[in-house]
Amino acid sequence: MTNKDLLTRMRNGEHLTTPEQISLVLRLSLPAILAQISTIIMQYIDASMVGSMGPSASAAIGIVSTTTWLIGGLCGAIGTGFTVGIAHRIGGGRDKEARSYVQTGLITVITFASILMLIAILIHNHLPVWMGGAEDVIKDASRYFLVYGLTLPIMQVNYTGAGMLECSGNMKTPSILNIVMCFLDVVFNSIFIFPSRNIDIFGMNVFVPGFGLGVLGAAIGTMCAEIVGALCILISIFKFSDKLHFRKNETGILARADWWEALKMSFPVMLSSAIMGSAYVLSTRIVSPLGNVSITANSFSITAESLCYMPGYGISHAATTLVGQAKGAGRNYLSRRFAYLSIAIGMVIMAGAGVLLYIFAPEMIAIMSPDQGVRDLGTRILRIEAFAEPMFGASIVAEGVFRGLGKTGTPSILNLLSMWCVRLPLSALAAINYGLVGVWYVMCIELCFRGLIFIIAILRTFRKEVEKKDIEKI
Description:
Elements (H helix, E strand, L loop, with lengths): L2 H9 L6 H34 L3 H24 L1 H12 L3 H29 L3 H4 L4 H33 L4 H22 L1 E7 L2 E8 L3 H26 L15 H32 L4 H37 L3 H37 L3 H14 L3 H17 L3 H60 L6
Antiparallel strand pairs: 1-2
Helix pairs in contact: 2-8, 2-11, 2-12, 3-7, 3-10, 3-11, 4-5, 4-7, 4-10, 4-11, 5-7, 7-8, 7-9, 8-9, 10-15, 11-12, 11-13, 11-14, 12-13, 12-14, 13-15, 14-15
């Protein structure tokens, strides 16, 4: 039975057995997991390309990377209300209302991203200095961040458009497009980063054109890939999506009350992203005095670790869709079941990923950097982080559950408590006394704490739902 058939049965109020529920979680998760993993693999390749130019080039990207995460998180968050609105309407069989979220939502989020683009243009020369970058990285870091800022409206289309397709039940298309975009990112980067050269391919001497732009070329290559991805996402929505493409006599304009409701749902997610992103920025400021080797090892280790937690984000996307559609269909018991199953599956998969992270940490860092100091330090801190992966998975998937329920304020409060009351103050003390290793010990402790409080919050949320209503018959 296909995903579409199972989703249709769920929306129609039909019974789903436990194996069918697990199957649906895994089926919807798998395309997103593969897309997330492909993204990280391509980031590995990108990092190795830049890393081949030395620690200074890597540090130039690393010094602004947490700021790009902050901005990227805000761009991803602004569309949450519109994507969740689509899930709830489709779950309730109101497809026409779901389509009205598409056009208005895209206009809203692109406008927001354009404002962020202007801010990025204004601060690009100052940001590396504010972050404590050394003289040899400031110029490259500034130019890289400028191009990143110019790409924001295009990236916004990819973020929100993919979310709209996923919440309509189509996980496959955005996943395939993401894989293609990542492949193109590597191709474009190889052209823009390096000068023209001859390379050996299966014994043949092949000429490869290039511009030799270094760190700037990495940003331009990514921009080109994002442009292709955005065009494909828009075509997929407006031309091929059976749920979302416009019909005749449909204006696509969302009622003002629904538009404001979508924004109110997005604001807590944006607050959560701001809390997390600004904490990551401050973490970079804490690490930057430790030198280029620590900055590079920190940045590369985060990239390496992300290969482990990307499955968690894939399952989180599936949880948002399933919990959201079940809630829209009025199937509260099934919504709770999908929540619990998703979190359990996420923890198991990320526990396995943590084991692999511990074993293969040296190889994962070696791919990205030829510098032995970076390799040794990166291996050590990755093995510390491996122990936090199961609980980190719980928090990632639980946040997706809260979004599916439309309760986007709770994760903001929990992230604020975890990051700003636990990680940052302890990291500042640890950096002084134990360097980067101490910072990563604190990160491991904080991620375990975060997972615990998210699990408690999920259990309390559904307990309150049960207290308010009779348990739905399966």
